[in-house]
Amino acid sequence: MTVEFSSLNPFFGTEIIGLDLSGGIDDRAFNVIWKCFNDAGLFLIRGQGLTVENQVALGRRFGDVQIHVMNQYLVDGHPEIYYLSNLGPDGEPNGKHPDRGTLHWHTDGSWRDRPGQATLMVAEVIPKQGGETHFCCTQAAYQQLDDQTKKQIAQLKVIHNLAFSRLRRHGEDPMTEAQKIAAPPVIHPMIRRHPLTGRKSIFLGDHAEAIDGMDYDTGRRLIDDLNARLVKPQFVYAHKYLPGDLIGWDNRRLLHRATPYDTTAERRVMRRTTILGEVPQ
């Protein structure tokens, strides 16, 4: 089997062409995926239709798989899968977006002591329009900051809070008190160094609520300003899904967000698995 590679963005991302995962993921296939993930920060394999079992198995090869605290999204029998669907019990669109927090730039699991290392997404059902995922390279964004800003933020620490991002984005509180207790706010450095490449990136996104030791409103203005400055067109790859796509990305160097779609008329079903990483340094 001949495997080819195609770049998706000048700063990150590789499409793997010719790799067939229909029979499972053997050592050779995983080695190709693992190398692309570490080298490019994002890999894409089209049209695989990966089973839930193989998705979970692939996630476990990356490391410790996250069991999300918001268990209303988990698949029965496979708690490693975070299920994003707008379908009702009758299989028809119910008009509700399953997780409106995903529509804003974020890093998976930044609200944990060990944030997400990798995320694997499988596209089951895709809408005709919208429902894409956009990715932004926070390493390239850090490099384009002026020296004064780099110095200003070098030692700052940021409070990441899942309840903060979910409450303000959903318009109602989607988390139970037990879920909030299980996911308390955590503090991470604003600038983190990638454990493999040593490259620095800005570690913010929508879960970032406040700056430790700074006046709340002042900190919010700085976070909002930096989040806006991160996203430049040249640092962004917009992925339009095809059925069966498998895409995986490195949360330590990328932000991502979903784009809206018509939840009343279009079907969208996605399966997400997040693998825990190291404590940010």
List the helices and strands and how they pair.
Elements: E1 4-7, E2 14-17, H1 27-40, E3 42-45, H2 52-62, E4 74-75, E5 78-85, E6 116-125, E7 133-137, H3 138-143, H4 147-153, E8 157-160, H5 162-170, H6 177-182, E9 186-189, E10 191-193, E11 200-202, E12 208-211, H7 216-230, E13 236-239, E14 246-250, E15 254-258, E16 269-276
Structure write-up:
24% of the residues lie in helices and 27% in strands. The chain has a single domain (4-276), classed as Double-stranded beta-helix, CATH 3.60.130. A hairpin with a 6-residue loop joins strand 10 and strand 11. It is built from seven helices and 16 strands. The model has no long low-confidence stretch (mean pLDDT 95). The protein is of the alpha+beta class and 281 residues long. The protein has helices at residues 27-40, 52-62, 138-143, 147-153, 162-170, 177-182, 216-230; strands at 4-7, 14-17, 42-45, 74-75, 78-85, 116-125, 133-137, 157-160, 186-189, 191-193, 200-202, 208-211, 236-239, 246-250, 254-258, 269-276. It starts with a strand and ends in a 5-residue tail after the last strand. The longest helix has 15 residues, at 216-230. The protein has an eight-stranded mixed β-sheet with strand order 1-2-3-14-6-16-5-4, with helices on one face. The protein is globular.
